[in-house]
Amino acid sequence: MTTSNLTRIVPRRRPGEARAGYGFIALDGLGLIVFVAGPALLALVIGLFDVDGFGKIEFAGFDNFALMAGDKLLWKCVGITAIFTAIFVPTAFVVSLCLALVVKNPYPGVGLVRAALFLPQVISLVVIGVMWKFLLTDKTGVVSGILSPLGLGDTSWLGDPWLALPTVAFISVWFLMGYQMLIFLAGLQDIPNELYDAATVDGANAWQRFWNVTWPCLRPTSFFVLVTSMVNAIAGTLAFDIIYVLTKGGPANSTSTVIFYAYQQAFTYGRFGYAAAICGFVVAVLILLTGAMFAATRGGRFNDA
């Protein structure tokens, strides 16, 4: 069964269903405009001023943006953010998809398994960070005790510049995989069983059913997961809360992402205008990346061919 045949089999959405869908997301869209788009636009405006938080507000034009070009530490943070995103996004995608496939079909205790995997989502990220910091304490932590027989008991997971970023990425995957699993699970349950029956009749094995039925039908869901995880990695809570609690950007700035660097510029050094300019840069990058993903995948929709 080819993708083009699958396209003809999947029924088109009726206009009424589309209107209902837009109605469901209307309030969420309004919230995004008020609490995301509005602050992003305000950051761009503040980036044009020299603001120190003590009443100084002077128009600076594009001076703050010009300073970014020569800020070596900022571009180091850009590289760290890119590495973190490259580790986190594909790993979380694969892990959450595999988990969704595991808990898709009903079996005794599947509800408890789903709840356990989703449990981190109902816990504050600060609590998550404190918990993992306790578990990863050098030499005396629980993780060191478990890995001691393997000769890894003395490993400093958060204190080694080469290990800190992958460790933070691993914790981020652990935190977000339950949420992404539910998104994939919803996508899997929306696939008509008739498609699997037709593929089975055609003699397709389990891998062929996944590749020719499951994977094409999950394209819109996959697109949503990729975009949201990318935003989380670059400018979301994962890029700030977990890093702030676990490492505060260290050691040696090895976990300092762009958004964390902007926070330091604003609330440690009082350079609010410069921090706003950095945030404006981050917003512009996210818009470009998201636009490129939409253009390359057509929003995850099926090909019309």
Describe this structure in words.
With about 300 residues, this protein is mostly helical. The protein has a single domain, classed as MetI-like fold (Orthogonal Bundle), CATH 1.10.3720. Helices cover about 70% and strands about 0% of the residues. The protein has a two-stranded antiparallel sheet with strand order 1-2. Helix 5 (about 110-120) packs across helix 8 (about 160-190), helix 8 (about 160-190) packs antiparallel against helix 11 (about 220-235) and helix 13 runs antiparallel to helix 14 (about 270-295). The two termini are about 15 Å apart.
CATH class: Mainly Alpha
Q: State the helical fraction.
A: 55-70%
Number of helices: 14
Structural class: mainly alpha
Major beta-sheet overview: 2 strands, antiparallel
Beta-strand level of the residues, as a percent range?
A: under 5%
Query: What's the structural domain tally?
Result: 1
SSE series: HHEEHHHHHHHHHHHH
Terminal CA distance: 14 Å
The rounded Rg comes to 23 Å
User: What is the tally of beta strands?
Assistant: 2
CATH superfamily: MetI-like
- The overall pLDDT, averaged over residues, is 85
Catalogue the unreliable spans: 6-10
CATH fold-level label: MetI-like fold
Which word captures the global form?
globular
CATH architectural arrangement: Orthogonal Bundle
Adjacency order of strands in the biggest sheet = 1-2
Keywords: Cell membrane, Membrane, Transmembrane, Transmembrane helix, Transport
InterPro entries: ABC_transporter_permease, MetI-like, MetI-like_sf
Main location: membrane
Subcellular location: Cell membrane
